[in-house]
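Write out this protein's structure.
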Amino acid sequence: MMTQFDCPGSAGKSRQAVPAENTLKFFTERGVRVAEIVTPMVREGVRNHFKCSSLEGAALQNQHTSEGACWGSHWEARLFETDLMSPVASHFTVYSNLTLALFEDSGWYKADYRYSQSALWGKNGGCKFAKGNRDGALAQTRRPNSSMISTYR
């Protein structure tokens, strides 16, 4: 059963259907409202990726919404930059375990994880990386096969 709520967006308020709390939950992190996919395999995948057992789920992008009140349709780029489901195009795009877990948790697919690729962005970054704020608390992260370093501030 889906709950209805008013979600302020760039075009004004619109009525949105919210999936059940065992699929999507809202949190406040870094002073921003965050929507996370909290299905079982996604939760396990995000905890394994960051090596952070306190994560509830994988954050979705919150751009193009008013005050982050709505959820996006991609993984949060700050956390999952190189993933296929990130909103950012990358030369290093991978089909990660996390994205395959989302597909499998939907009940529509049976993922073959032998074909997943290692997402290096944020890998083993710990809770500090996964829950870091925008004032420089995130560690610098080297992009795979590159001398470029990105720091979210």
